[in-house]
Amino acid sequence: MSGPRRDEAGHARLTRLGYRRALPVAAAVVLLDQLSKWWILSAVMQPPREIPVTPFFNLVLAWNRGVSFSLFRSDASIAPYVLSAIAVAVVIGLLVWLGRQHRLWPALGIGLVIGGAVGNVIDRLRHGAVVDFVDFHAAGWHWPAFNLADSAITIGVAVLVADGLFGRPDEAKT
After folding, report:
1. Is 170 one of the annotated active-site residues of the chain?
2. Catalytic: 7?
3. Domains in the chain: boundaries
4. Per-residue pLDDT tens for 71-107?
């Protein structure tokens, strides 16, 4: 059984492997994100309310009309389209980066970020805002509500940062 083909510099050619691994991750994130939001909207939050799950975790229904942590929040009718266009441009940039990626962990991190971004774009186009429902809190302080797509983006960025700090760029990771 032969390993990955090597280029002139000796780097393993994992671009196709990266796409084969990262795009299914992105698709799974979108599917799970949209299923979780559908469940929250159609079953759990009928009527909308705060549901205490543990002493530090609630289910809530929050409509985020901005970006992360409701930054750049706007009720303007065009805002969801502007924010979606920006997110789509970011996804295109990430796909280009993914096409140049020769290592597995960064490819998976990029896949998580792409999936999360697409999941939130779907919300903006369907609902005019992103559906957030996870509420962690302690001592009366609440972290901004978030969703599975937001979690995937955060984990994906953490993987990319960790790989940038601790990964070995001279070796292909499989």
Report:
1. no
2. no
3. 15-166
4. 556 677 888 899 999 999 999 999 999 988 888 999 9
